[in-house]
Structure to design on (440 residues):
């Protein structure tokens, strides 16, 4: 059945590998179960309901991605858009969460239209090759930075912006050990090396004090929890809000559209390049269907009561673990649903166990840089700036937009203006407006 549905042999994988890849992806992104409700509840939404909504919409998004595109890409409410939803739209502009959900819903509808008409696919095809290479490497650097910062290996610093943390503390020290351990397991080609590494670090954490009176890994109370009802947020959106007051709020809809579109495009392109299917006929077909699944998931997420559901960069960890088909996404979906019942058990996985995975993924994603011709400064400069700006701006969208602007400028200065595709010009102009003039 799995072979028929997901073409495992054709994609050089098997059920065991896909299962382990799904576990790896879920472990890397399970934090969203706690973080998304924490952020969105600041708008007045019910925190208990949001836990269930986060898990359910993630599961629905993963299932859509699996059966529509057969890609090992996991979806969940996105981190950049949930912050924009809460702090900019609701708290900053005084828009109610019901109205913000309506903006998110119509954002999804526009996505579906753009995808059905082939516009989103055309945008991907118009992205210059250096930008795609930069996206792949940049996503790797981005998630490595997230992992190292969460583990305290990298910390904020008022003078130098960032700095090394106190590496003698238990969590950073265990994280560094985890990187070495998982690298050893990967080099030795131990089956399920990343999952095995996370398991070992989690077990070790039971015996190491965190420094605040607790252990790095702790299990308190029961391992079973009762799921909350989604009724406080389900179908509570203010349906026609974006079209009231003479379309006053349509610019917000445009901003959401750009944020989600290029976050999802960046993630799917980056993961597809890592799988080496981007640019092939079958790969392009799967990417197109993946974008359609992403669009539908956004609309469904708003109906359930959450900000934009989108492709997660942590999907790259599953690809690094060997995931090649939608079966990986199905496993992630099952994990999210099980988390509703076993959330205390899921919560014990410490950041010291997940951060090393993200660092190893970054090493693998950086492999794309080998395709650059470093004698061609226009190509290499564009790719490297894109790769650097994604983590430094903490935004895939901003990294892509500034990368496009650099590409256009470099091409003009090098007398290669004819190589710029018409849609690339349009995107560059849109990003100039979005980055420098729009009030967002």
């Amino acid at each position: 059945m799995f072979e028929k549905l997901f073409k495992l042999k054709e994609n050089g994988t098997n059920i065991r590998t896909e299962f382990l890849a799904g576990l790896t992806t879920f472990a890397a992104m399970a934090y969203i179960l706690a973080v998304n409700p924490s952020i969105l509840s600041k708008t007045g939404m019910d925190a208990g309901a949001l836990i269930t909504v986060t898990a359910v919409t993630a599961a629905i998004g993963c299932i859509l991605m699996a059966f529509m595109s057969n890609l090992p890409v996991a979806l969940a409410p996105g981190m950049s858009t949930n912050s924009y939803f809460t702090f900019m739209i609701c708290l900053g502009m005084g828009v109610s969460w019901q109205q913000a959900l309506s903006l998110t819903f119509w954002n999804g509808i526009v996505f579906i239209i753009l995808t059905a008409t082939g516009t989103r696919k055309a945008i991907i095809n118009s992205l210059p090759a250096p930008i795609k290479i930069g996206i792949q490497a940049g996503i790797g650097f981005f998630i490595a930075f997230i992992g190292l910062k969460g583990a305290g290996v990298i910390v904020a610093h008022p003078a130098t912006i960032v700095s090394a943390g106190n590496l003698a503390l238990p969590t950073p020290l265990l994280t560094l050990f985890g990187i070495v351990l998982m690298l050893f397991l990967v080099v030795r080609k131990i089956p399920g090396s990343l999952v095995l590494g996370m398991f070992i670090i989690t077990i070790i954490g039971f015996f190491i004090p965190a420094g605040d009176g607790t252990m790095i890994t702790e299990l308190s109370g029961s391992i079973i929890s009762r799921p909350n009802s989604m009724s406080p947020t389900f179908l509570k959106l203010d349906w026609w809000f974006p079209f009231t007051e003479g379309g006053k709020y349509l610019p917000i809809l445009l901003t959401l559209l750009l944020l989600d579109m290029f976050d999802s495009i960046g993630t799917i392109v980056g993961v597809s390049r890592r799988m080496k299917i981007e640019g092939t006929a079958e790969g392009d077909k799967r990417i197109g269907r993946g974008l359609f699944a992403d669009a539908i998931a956004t609309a469904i997420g708003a109906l359930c009561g959450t900000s934009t559901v989108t492709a997660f960069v942590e999907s790259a960890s599953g690809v690094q673990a060997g995931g090649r088909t939608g079966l990986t996404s199905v496993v992630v979906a099952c994990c999210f649903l099980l988390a509703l019942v076993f959330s205390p058990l899921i919560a014990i996985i410490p950041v010291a166990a997940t951060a090393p995975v993200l660092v190893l993924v970054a090493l693998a994603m950086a492999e794309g840089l080998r395709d650059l011709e470093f004698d061609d400064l226009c190509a290499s400069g564009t790719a490297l700036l894109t790769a650097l700006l994604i983590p430094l701006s903490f935004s895939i969208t901003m990294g892509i937009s500034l990368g496009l602007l650099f590409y256009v400028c470099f091409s003009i200065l090098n007398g290669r203006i004819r190589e710029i595709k018409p849609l690339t010009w349009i995107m560059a102009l849109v990003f100039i407006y979005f980055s420098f003039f729009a009030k967002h």
Q: What stands out?
A: The CA atoms of residues 65 and 208 lie 39 Å apart. The longest strand covers residues 154-157.
